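From the pipeline queue, job 12 of 40. The input is one protein chain; the requested action is below.

Action: predict structure.
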Amino acid sequence: MEVHCTGELAMPTTVTDPYDILQASILSRPRMMGSAGEAETIRFLKDFLKKHNLHPSTEEFTWSTAFVSGRKYLYLLLGVLAILFNISLRLAQPLNGILTIVLVVVAISVLVFGMKGLLHDKFKGLGKSFQGENVLCDVPSRNNEKDAPLIYFTAHYDSISSNHPKLNTISMMALLLGFILSVLLTLTSVILNLSDYANAAWNGQPTIHVINLTLLIFSAVVVSLSIFSQFIERTNSSPGACDNGSGSAILLSLAAHFQQQPPAHTRLKFIWCGAEEWGLYGSKGYVKAHQEEIAAGCERSCVINVDMVGSELAYLQKSGFIFQKPLNKQLNVLIAQCAEEADIAARPFNSVIGGNSDHASFQKEKVEVCFFLSNKDTKIIHSPQDTIEKVKPEKMADAVELIKRMVTKLDKQFL
């Protein structure tokens, strides 16, 4: 991996403004996992917390390049299947129907189980493994109740870039969409081929020909993008100020505040997660190590995940590819209430993807989660354009104020 050496910037111990923290620290400079920036970030987080009379600790976890490598293999396999669709449909009837149905079943299975396998780390052998660290600190309730309800705050501290940042996400989404359309066109062609074979009086070949030609075009796109995906590499060229130096700085500001003014009846746990950009390994590692504790307290706990506050303050409302469902039952309502009371602009948005940040690891354990993400800034992340200039100080201040108000209300609700 590329090693990026940086020099530390001095920071007054009294600084708690999130933008000032971001601007004066490694959090606005490259810090890819495995680089010198990663080690400097961990040192900075621990030093900041110590200077504010908090007691940071670290927990090791294993992260891997398997998710990134496995995704490349999956995309290549989808390209091969797209080629096989076209070959099988050009066989003689009824073989072009029967064999193609088998291929479609295989293709759907590969896509579904391949994606699930990647998300659940089933292909560890495809990549190299490394050790990383999460940085944690606790703020007990003012009444020091050991079994008090618990609010987890999460933000990932690592940054990442790509050698093709503008094409990476777009091309991969186009590949998946093109493959799904190829499957649908193939199924349509199969049905028409079998109908044509069974009913000699019906001539469906002109329609079949048009569908097969359309399939060929989509397949060519899938194959081209699957080959292109093999040349995408991760680099350490993004300052990562928005993604996610902003969230990390906001958590530091909140931790310093609540150390002085803890909630009366609620414990707080702050987790700066590593290797989020490689497959949520930091949060997955934490959840795995504390699974029994999290499961036992899931009804009296929640997660506030801050992953990007840049040109806007926004939060995920609903997610889903076809049928979108709310991310949570109560937290988004609370966000809207607090924002209205404080006259803070906090924009709800919907997304096809909802599990692409550290809250997802806790959500699998039935913990209520919310997810702050400046969705409008996704076009500049994972690139050298993700600089401190893209982050608005007032939006970071709004995020801190909004979350303070959320904690105050949650402290009363948990009673």
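Job complete. Confidence is low (pLDDT under 50) at residues 1-13.
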